[in-house]
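>> received
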Amino acid sequence: MRTRLSTGVLLAAVLLAVPACGSGTDDTGGKPEGGATPSVEASGSKVPDISEGIPEEPTGARRAALLAALKAVDPALAADADKAVANARQQCATITGGGNAVAAAQSRFGSADHQVTEARAKAINEVLERTLCTS
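>> returned
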């Protein structure tokens, strides 16, 4: 009995989900239905702008200070200066946006060849809050 009930619930969930898996296009060349991408989710909350929370690219002394601070946490973080600055700017959006900043820093600054520990990720976030994300 329990297996039949579980199977029935699972089947109902799948059948309800299938209409939601539509292509979202109409006959007008693959454009989204309604002609525009909605700016509000179904729940009514605003969809965040991808550029919100990303500071301007630092230059001069501010860029040098950012790179020096990242290098102090781990020299590998500043090995590619342009990549480090780009990662730092993106990380600011996560920090100010309330996302999981530690996990994001580990993913954003780490690689297969260089793992970023949780402690280093926290240090990266602290450095960014002091040097870049405050603008």
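>> Residues 81-97 form the longest helix (17 residues).
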